[in-house]
């Protein structure tokens, strides 16, 4: 190839690469179109949670990390729910519904709890295999953060203050 042609194409390719990178950074993953059925029979769609910051937490009653972070989740919900935070707790398919109900009642979980009995929600969130796993979406339904393992509640509260304008 002609060296002069190479030099003239280089800026074009750099601009093209830069445009691609900007698009990738702005292309935020949207929340899946999921309907959660709570253990008390209510249905909640992700679409109905638009204009709220949503934390979807995959957990299990036999998961030590899940049980350890649950009091902090409760406290975070109580602190930020009135400002626009919603938490949906999704119990794993292998969890027994009676254990989920007993735990939810004994801990007075204030947020909706669902049992993903058929593993459909897990699939829609990209094959969640480990607990706890949390997905946090902004008010427009775009993924802000995915955390595998226990949440950092100090960082979470900073994020919520920013996202909820608190």
Write up this protein:
The protein is an alpha/beta fold. It has one domain: Glutaredoxin. Helices cover 41% and strands 20% of the residues. The chain contains five helices and seven strands. It has helices spanning 3-26, 64-80, 97-106, 120-124, 153-164; strands spanning 35-37, 43-45, 53-59, 85-91, 113-115, 133-137, 143-148. The strands form two sheets. The chain has a five-stranded mixed sheet with strand order 5-4-3-6-7, covered by helices on one side. Strand 6 (133-137) and strand 7 form a beta hairpin. Helix 2 (64-80) runs parallel beside helix 5 (153-164).
Q: How does the overall form come out from the CA principal axes?
A: globular
Low-confidence stretches: 21-26
Major sheet characteristics: 5 strands, mixed
Number of extended strands:
7
Can you tell me the number of structural domains?
Answer: 1
Indicate the radius of gyration in whole angstroms: 20 Å
Which sequence of strands runs across the widest sheet? 5-4-3-6-7
Structural class: alpha/beta
Q: Which CATH architecture is right?
A: 3-Layer(aba) Sandwich
Helix content, binned percent:
40-55%
Residue-averaged pLDDT: 89
CATH level 1 class label: Alpha Beta
């Amino acid at each position: 190839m002609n060296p002069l042609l190479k030099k003239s194409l280089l800026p074009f390719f750099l601009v093209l690469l830069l445009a691609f990178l900007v698009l990738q950074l702005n292309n935020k993953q949207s929340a899946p179109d999921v309907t959660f059925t709570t253990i008390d029979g209510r249905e909640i769609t992700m679409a109905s949670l638009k204009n709220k910051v949503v934390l979807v937490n995959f957990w299990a009653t036999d998961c030590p990390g899940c049980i350890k972070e649950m009091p902090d989740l409760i406290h975070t919900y109580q602190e930020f729910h009135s400002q626009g935070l919603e938490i949906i707790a999704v119990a794993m398919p292998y969890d027994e519904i009676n254990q989920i109900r007993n735990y939810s009642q004994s801990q007075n979980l204030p947020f909706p709890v669902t049992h993903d009995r058929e593993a459909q929600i897990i699939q829609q969130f990209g094959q969640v295999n480990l607990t706890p796993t949390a997905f946090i979406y902004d008010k427009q339904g775009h993924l802000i953060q995915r955390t595998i393992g226990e949440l950092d509640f100090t960082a979470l509260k900073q994020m919520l203050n920013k996202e909820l304008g608190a």
